[in-house]
Amino acid sequence: MEISSIVLGIVITLGVIVLVWLLASSGKRKSKKNFISLCEKLKEKSVHITEYEQINNFFIGIDVENKILVYLKDNFGDTTPELFELKNVLSCNNDIPKDRNNVDEDLHIILIPKNSSAKIKLECYYANLGLSSKKEIIFLEKWTEKINSVINK
């Protein structure tokens, strides 16, 4: 009786592990397929993403050579990516609060255009979802720095 219980426990545990692994790998394959599809769309516009990152439902990429920022909200899908020419941007900031442990507002990457007073806000975190904001803050800091380095080239 004890051996059959142990064997059944091992079989169930292995089944759960395999199921989780299959679900995780299918999500990665779908994400890669969507990224390839996005790159095909952008090739038509002569945009070649050299660096990119996806976090939650947000995708951001950059064409360093042509100084173009690619932003896409809601996990690729049929949504058309927004393209921003960084040649026309003075600088990039973010709205990370001083108290990083108490984030109760949406977080954005903020582009400041050269010829306009209107700032462009790119959402990167939804406070109303109640998810941890730590990785989003790291994401914002990293991409603000990358975008500024391309602007200043």
Question: What this model shows, in words?
Answer:
The chain is an alpha+beta fold and 153 residues long. The chain has one domain (2-151). The chain has two helices and seven strands; from the N terminus they run αβββββββα. It has helices spanning 2-43, 134-151, and strands spanning 51-55, 58-63, 68-73, 82-85, 89-94, 107-113, 120-125. The protein has a four-stranded antiparallel sheet with strand order 1-2-3-4, covered by helices on one side. Strands 5-6-7 form a three-stranded antiparallel sheet. β3 (68-73) and β4 form a beta hairpin. The model has no long low-confidence stretch (mean pLDDT 77).
Furnish the topology, listing elements before pairings.
Elements (H helix, E strand, L loop, with lengths): L1 H42 L7 E5 L2 E6 L4 E6 L8 E4 L3 E6 L12 E7 L6 E6 L8 H18 L2
Antiparallel strand pairs: 1-2, 2-3, 3-4, 5-6, 6-7
Spatial separation of the terminal alpha carbons: 71 Å
What class would the helix/strand composition place it in? alpha+beta
Could you spell the SSE succession in H and E letters?
A: HEEEEEEEH
Average pLDDT, all residues: 77
- Tally of structural domains: 1
Evaluate the radius of gyration.
20 Å
User: What fraction strand?
Assistant: 25-35%
Question: Largest sheet at a glance?
Answer: 4 strands, antiparallel
Count of separate DSSP helical elements:
2
Helix proportion of residues, in percent? 25-40%
Q: Please mark out the parts with pLDDT under 50 across 5 or more consecutive residues, or reply none.
A: none
Strand order of the largest sheet: 1-2-3-4
Number of strands: 7
Shape, per Cα inertia axes: elongated
